[in-house]
Amino acid sequence: MRDAPALLTLLRAWPDAPAAPVLLDADACDALVKAAVRHGLAGFVEHALMKAGWTLTPDAGALLTRESRSAAARGLRVRSLLSRSLAALTTLGVTPVLLKGYGLARRLYPEPLQRATHDVDLLVPRARVLCAVHALEGMGLTARAGDVDRDDAHHVELSGPEGLVELHYRALAGYGQALEGDALVARAMDATLDGHPVRYLSPEDEAVYLALHASNHLLQRLAWLFDLKLLARAHPGLDWDRVVTRARRTGLPHLVWYAWDAAWRLLDAPVPPWVLKALSPPRWQRALATRLFSGPRLVGADLARNKPAWVAAKLALAPRARPMVRYALRRLRGARPPLETGAEPGAPRPVRSPAGRR
At the topology level of CATH, where does 6-356 sit? Predict the structure, then answer.
């Protein structure tokens, strides 16, 4: 890791500081700040730099502070929308599972606003989807029409001036397959957030879900890999046997391997080697993943900048080719893209300057 980008050096060393403070030149400072913003970690990097004793140039330091505060302001808006959503669902006796986002950052990061979040993700039993939609519409959100029975659908999008809520009945749909939500809900753990009853995935389910989500988006945001590292550190008693069993039951164990292997290789995530061996794909896919998911390529989010490479990587890394090909053909025949991105979730989008990112 001697020649690793500065962002990887910080994330790999955490919760310790790197061995010695680093004095970065102007170009390296600029690259570090842009990478932190690109990967949704501006606030965390500002915190980690102080602990590490690294010095940025005045311009880079000012940009990082500005971006950190901007991300925190967005996070506060998401937190407000989440609180209102939880209150609306509580009136119907629905306690959702919080996926990713503010709830995850609240549990894993030094401060929850250090990790960028843009929307609210809630998982409810399929039988409660319609009543949950009505409750959220009562807040002034508008649901986008869609077919909840479509095999490549997994959530209902509800949007309004306050932001976007994704109401999941499947935890994930990707690579032509889906991860149903009801079993995850049944194993979820009761908790509270800002006085509201909530539920979180069991640690083993979360270890699988977060990895699947990251791989579905080709690991193009380092925050997703860092989440895995923090999750494993927060649960030293994690039952890895259950993680392996549940990963296999999804039919997508290779996707779990891609994310955990990259988190282990690049960020020193504490995952036992036997777990990676148990989940590993064929040798050629391991070699391809190691090449595609190298440190510099992930820091640069190379696949997110190249649509043909994105599609080729998804096809090559798919655990089963046939469902992925069918899914890709459906998308090409004109299935409407998600509301925010205009493309498949996680797919390449126009590159924006840090100040213009959402």
Answer: Beta Polymerase; domain 2 (3.30.460)
